[in-house]
Amino acid sequence: YSNVKTLKGVYIMKKLILDFDNTLVNTTKAMIKSMNPYIKDVAQKVPENKVAYYWSFEDIFPSTHVRYVDILFNSQHLFDNLELFPNVFNVLEDLHNKGVQIYICTIGSYKNIKLKLDWLHKNLPFVDVIPIAQNNIAMNKAIINMENSVFIDDNTDCLNSSNSDIKIVYRHDGYMTQRNNVWNGYVSTSWEDKDFIKLLYNLLEVND
Questions:
Q1: By the 8 A CB rule, do 200 and 150 touch?
Q2: Distance CA 37, CA 206 (A)
Q3: Element (H, E) at 16
Q4: Which one, 10, 51, 155, 193, has the greatest CB density within 10 A?
Q5: What is the pLDDT of residues 41-67, one digit of tens each?
Q6: Is residue 155 classed as helix, strand or coil in its secondary structure?
Q7: 114-125 pLDDT tens trace
Q8: In the chain, which residue ranges form alpha helices assigned H by DSSP?
Q9: Phi, psi values for residue 51, rounded to 5°
Q10: pLDDT of 13
Q11: What is the model's pLDDT at position 208?
Q12: Within 10 Å of residue 76's Cβ, how many Cβ atoms?
């Protein structure tokens, strides 16, 4: 294990694996920005900072069929509205420059993955991507070998099913959702949180 050492009994590694949607990028905000123009009643338009508890967005778009949400996930319109969470680029670029291998592991349809690859090539060109084609059998990332890595995801099912050594759930601004509400391990609520960044740098054995 050339990239693994121990510090106070904790593994330290040089490989970082990250989820994409609502971990690196504010997919919920992009979805709201993409959906609002099609809502005719102004009173029913959703504030862009609204948090969706359900990944189907049924709680904030109750009158919208889930099929239309799925269409948006596979549209260029959504990706045109997509933004990195604040400070993500700065943290990841610095880690990359200090020798950390960074991988984005994401699940989606073939169209969604193609759009993600194009978007990442433009906005985070120094990362590698591990795409997983969506299917109706299992929505987890267990098929990917994540040994000797730090893994960050907003979906605790993906974290629990992985073999990563260090797992961190991401809850932006501390908001609980259907996918992250049960977790007893490391938690991050912002890429601007100095304590989180310090922990990450320590685990990856780089100087901040």
A1: yes
A2: 44
A3: strand 15-18
A4: 155
A5: 777 788 888 988 988 888 888 776 677
A6: coil
A7: 999 999 999 999
A8: 27-35, 66-73, 76-80, 88-97, 110-123, 156-161, 194-203
A9: -105, 130
A10: 57
A11: 67
A12: 11
Which amino acid would we find at residue 43?
A
Cα torsion 149, 154, 155, 161 to 10°: value is 10
Amino acid at 61: F
Q: Is the pLDDT of residue 5 over 50?
A: no
User: What are φ and ψ of residue 96, in 5° steps?
Assistant: -60, -45
- Secondary structure (DSSP) of 120-144: HHHH-TT-EEEEEE--SS--S-TTS
164-181 confidence digits (pLDDT tens): 999 999 999 999 999 999
> What's the predicted TM-score (pTM) here?
0.89
155, 161, 167, 172: CA torsion to nearest 10: 0
∠ CA 80-156-125, nearest 5°, is 35
Identify the DSSP state of 36: G
Tens-digit pLDDT profile for residues 92-105: 999 999 999 999 99
